[in-house]
Predict the structure.
Amino acid sequence: MERVAPEPDLGFGVLESRMLLDRVHERLALFLHHLLRHAGRLLRWAVRASTLVPLAGCEDRLSAVHPAGPAAQTIATLWWVLLGGATLIFLFVMVLLALAMRRRDAPGQASGERVWIVGLGLAFPLTVLAALLAYGLVVGERLLPRPGPGVVDVGAEGRQWDWHFTYADAPGRMTEGVLHIPAGRPVDVAITSADVIHSFWVPRLAGKLDAIPGHVNVLRIEAWVPGDYAGVSSEYNGPGYTGHDFTVRAHDEAAWADFLAGEAP
C-alpha cells in the first residue's frame, strides 16, 4: 500500500500571516504617530515644495491665474477658492484616516463611529461642496454680459484655421488673427463659426466660450491696460488645431480712435 503524503499544516502559515500583519500595523501606527507629531513642519515643507511647479507657470501668456481684466480676476478667484475647498476636504479626510489607523477596537464603539461617519465623513464634505457650489453660481451670474454704458460690440468668427473679427463701431472693417479692443472698457464678443465648433479663449481676459456654426454666443472681456494678450481655440477641431491661435490687442483711447478711423494698427 502506497503511503499517502501528509497534508501540510496550514496553522503555522496562518499564524505567521497574522504576526506579519500585526507587525505591519504596528509599524504603520508608529509612522503615523511620527507623521502627526511633526505634521506642522511637514505641511510647511510640502506646501513650499508643491508651489514650485505651479508658480513657474503663473506668468505664462496663457495663465488663467495671472489675470489682466475683471472677468479673468473673478475666474482666478473662483479657481483659488475651489482649490482651497478641495484641499480642506482632502486634509480633513487624511486626518480621519490617520486617526482610524491609530485607534483600536473597543466595546461600544459603534455609536461613536456613526457620529464620525455621518457627522464628519458626510456632513462636512457636503457642507463645503454646497458652499462652493453656491459661490460658483454667484460668480457665474456676475460674468454674464449685461447692457451698460460704454460697452463695445465686436464679432469673432472661427474658421479652419484662423479667426475673423468685425467691429460694430467700424462697419466694413475686418481683421484676421488680431482682435482690437479699447483698454479699460467692457467688450462684448459675439462668437460664431463658419464651419465646425471652435472655442474662443483668452485666459488672461475671460473664460472660454464655444463658437458654434449657425449660433451666436456672447462673451464679455475687458483688459485693464493696453497690450497684447494671447488667445487660442481651446477645442480640438482637426489637424490644424495646434496653430489656431490669435491675439487680442488692447489700445489706449488715442490708438483706439485711430483704429476706428481706419488707420493701420
User: Anything to note?
Assistant: Confidence is low (pLDDT under 50) at residues 7-12. The chain is about 45% helix and 20% strand.
